[in-house]
Design a protein that fits this description.
With 119 residues, the chain is of the alpha+beta class. The protein has five helices and five strands, in the order αβαββααββα. α1 packs across α3.
Length: 119
Amino acid sequence: MYTQTWSKFLPVIRIMLKRAVAAPQMLELNRTDFDKAGGGKKAGFRFTVELTNAKLQNKITSPVAQDLLFVLQQDAATVAILSNRSYTLDLNPKCELSLRCTSVAEETLVVSEELVVAE
């Protein structure tokens, strides 16, 4: 139902996922697109998707979230970005999608430990 809408935003989401490694990102989505895809009903969309190595880590029941996950996992370029990292994607009722790379802290810690051992 929402796959076409998510596909429209996919190129921008890909860029935001890359940037999220350095800092959390926020993408304002067009709520009208989601309302139209949902048959004109105005629902408050809210969900959290946790991904590790492009695989879902939490339970999602929202059709909007399920379709986002489907679109992300069907795109080879996006799967490559999501591989070897953990991400959290949150959509709030204002249709703002926040993207955070949660594995950056772990990677930084490992690199810091390697530097200390090397000295």
